[in-house]
């Protein structure tokens, strides 16, 4: 029994160390991206700045694109994002909960904008990153299923609207392209985007 406990303890220590190493590498890569741009953020430079072996960086992230994806995720899904998700899950009123479906995308897209600015012009990363972002879009579609199910369970879903169609509408309205067009191209403020999105989601899904 004592041996089993020691193994579990050692396993937890290794997991903690692995997490700390991953965080250190992401932080080092982000600083290099800011200082030298995408071209200067080589795997070797990241390893030196993080104080780890190059093989460790490859083992954890696989490629520069993998590191960029991790940097974006760190910006998107930090503590503020986690707080919003917890608050949304604790909100019982369907209309109030739907408003978080607008607040959370705003938080994500605002947070990632600084990294996207650093990557602007980095054509080498574009194809692979586009593929990774397409996967994120699929994950976003899957993650929104619970919210639509909640509307069904509380009998709040707009009459005549199927669950599948509701998911399609929510997924489309909260897409990055909508944020890019309104905020990036048309000059809306992030707050104006959130207000409009909140009203649009409630109107289309509840009515």
Explain what this protein looks like in three dimensions.
The chain folds into two domains: 2-62, Homeodomain-like (Arc Repressor Mutant, subunit A, Orthogonal Bundle); 74-205, Tetracycline Repressor, domain 2, CATH 1.10.357. The model has no long low-confidence stretch (mean pLDDT 88). It starts with a helix and ends with a helix. It is globular, with a radius of gyration of 20 Å. The protein has 207 residues and is an all-alpha fold. Helices cover 82% and strands 0% of the residues.
In the CATH hierarchy, the third-tier topology of the largest domain is known as Tetracycline Repressor, domain 2
Principal-axis shape equals globular
Distance between the termini: 59 Å
Parts with pLDDT < 50 across at least 5 consecutive residues: none
Mean pLDDT: 88
Strand content: under 5%
What is the succession of H and E elements? HHHHHHHHHHH
Q: What percentage of residues falls in helices of 4 or more residues?
A: over 70%
**What is the CATH C-level name of the largest domain?**
Mainly Alpha
Which structural class matches the secondary elements?
mainly alpha
CATH architecture of the largest domain: Orthogonal Bundle
**Radius of gyration from the CA trace?**
20 Å
Number of helices: 11
């Amino acid at each position: 029994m004592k041996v089993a406990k020691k193994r579990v303890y050692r396993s937890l220590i290794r997991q903690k160390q692995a997490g700390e190493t991953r965080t250190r590498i992401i932080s080092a890569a982000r600083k290099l991206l800011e200082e030298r741009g995408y071209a200067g953020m080589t795997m070797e430079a990241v390893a030196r700045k993080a104080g780890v072996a190059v093989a460790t960086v490859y083992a954890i992230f696989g490629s520069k694109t993998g590191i960029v994806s991790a940097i974006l995720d760190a910006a998107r899904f930090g503590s503020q994002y986690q707080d919003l998700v917890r608050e949304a899950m604790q909100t019982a009123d369907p209309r109030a909960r739907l408003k978080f479906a607008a607040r959370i995308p705003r938080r994500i897209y605002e947070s990632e904008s600084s990294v996207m600015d650093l990557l602007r012009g980095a054509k080498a990363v574009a194809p692979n990153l586009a593929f990774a972002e397409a996967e994120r879009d699929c994950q976003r579609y899957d993650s929104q299923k619970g919210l639509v199910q909640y509307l069904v369970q509380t009998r709040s879903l707009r009459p005549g609207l199927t669950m599948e169609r509701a998911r399609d509408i929510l997924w489309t309205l909260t897409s990055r392209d909508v944020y890019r067009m309104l905020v990036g191209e048309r000059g809306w403020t992030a707050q104006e985007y959130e207000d409009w999105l909140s009203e649009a989601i409630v109107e289309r899904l509840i009515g």
